[in-house]
Design a protein that fits this description.
mainly alpha, Arc Repressor Mutant, subunit A, two-stranded antiparallel ribbon, DNA-binding transcription factor activity, WH_DNA-bd_sf, BadM/Rrf2 family transcriptional regulator
Length: about 140
């Protein structure tokens, strides 16, 4: 099963954009992520709609940060990127009348709900600014 890496990839891009202060074209970002520019434009579109980036057309144009990094949480980016589910673990519903299946699904559901609440809380507590500061401390220029 393939993992959904959109959040980490977009955080990577945003931190590069914040450090460089220069606009990045969709093609430059695509090269950085080993993907194509159309995928980048589609994903960055969600960030633009949320007000985290802006795009400028023409020579010297590209994507720029349009927000205060300290005011945007990792959860905000997660939502803007459009990832549907945090966890892909699912339930078996092949025997809805089976009491054992119900107990198993209840236990899994409870564990997933608890894990999702904790993860969301953690993502909400870390800002893009926090990541930028961590990077600067670890790898000063």
């Amino acid at each position: 099963m393939r993992t959904d890496s959109r959040l980490s990839r977009m955080l990577h891009v945003l931190l590069h954009m914040a450090r460089d202060q220069q606009p990045k074209t969709s093609q430059q970002i695509a090269t950085m992520l080993s993907t194509n520019a159309a995928v980048v434009r589609r994903t960055m579109g969600g960030l633009r709609r949320a007000g985290y980036v802006q795009s400028e057309k023409g020579h010297g144009g590209g994507w720029r940060i349009a927000c205060d990094l300290n005011q945007v949480s990792l959860y905000d980016i997660y939502q803007a990127v459009g990832t549907e589910k945090i966890f892909t673990i699912g339930f078996d519903h092949s025997h809805p009348d089976c009491l054992v299946e119900r107990v198993v699904n209840d236990a899994i559901g409870e564990a997933l709900s608890d894990a999702e609440r904790r993860l969301i809380k953690r993502l909400q507590s870390v800002s893009l600014g926090d990541l930028a500061q961590q990077f600067s401390r670890r790898y000063p220029t």
